[in-house]
Amino acid sequence: MNKDLKKILLTEEEIKKRVCELAQDIMNDFKDEELFFIGVLKGSVVFVADLMRCVKNDVTMDFMAVSSYGLSSQTSGVVRILKDLDFDIEGKNVIIVEDIIDTGTTLKYLYEYLKKRNPKVLKICCLLDKPERRKVDIKADYIGFTIPDEFVVGYGLDFAERFRNLPYIAVVKEEAYANK
Ligand code: PRP
Ligand code: MN
Ligand code: MG
């Protein structure tokens, strides 16, 4: 394991199993209806790719790019939209797919923003939830894992853009980000 990492929090196998369970929950809720997935760049890329391959429904997908963290490990609290949707979501079954809810700033903003476009249904599917860190009131409809307040990377999640390619989720050592 990389010297900046402390331990593996979730293994590749644990993630794979849970992602398929989330897909099953979504299939149970939407039966044979069409779905529109919105992946939030860049953190959700790995998760949305795996999740949509487990779902048997007709899925259309798009990405949005928003940023609140940038290269810092602390949220700035400001959400910027860097790339909006290419498609109209009015009347659609929309599921926002995110890697993690931390303070909730990103998802709260996105949820309110997309709600205004009148989707038929707007749900949130998030792999990781850190409830201890919440600053704004937002809850996901589908949650993979509730995790403690530790700095995690891998499976799409980064620390200063590194570690997104790890197939597992690991905890970063405090000394690696203490002075950043
Ligand atoms: C991270 C993460 C979530 C968001 C969660 O994204 O992927 O999108 O922060 O934090 P919040 O609940 O406090 O808003 P980041 O801004 O680091 O961009 P990235 O996805 O490109 O890594
Ligand atoms: Mn993100
Ligand atoms: Mg990030």
UniProtKB/TrEMBL annotation:
It is found in: Cytoplasm. One of its GO terms (cellular component) is cytosol. It comes from the Bacteria. Its cofactor is Mg(2+). The keyword tRNA processing does not apply. Purine salvage pathway enzyme that catalyzes the transfer of the ribosyl-5-phosphate group from 5-phospho-alpha-D-ribose 1-diphosphate (PRPP) to the N9 position of the 6-oxopurines hypoxanthine and guanine to form the corresponding ribonucleotides IMP (inosine 5'-monophosphate) and GMP (guanosine 5'-monophosphate), with the release of PPi. PANTHER family: HYPOXANTHINE PHOSPHORIBOSYLTRANSFERASE (PTHR43340:SF1), HYPOXANTHINE-GUANINE PHOSPHORIBOSYLTRANSFERASE (PTHR43340). This is Hypoxanthine phosphoribosyltransferase.
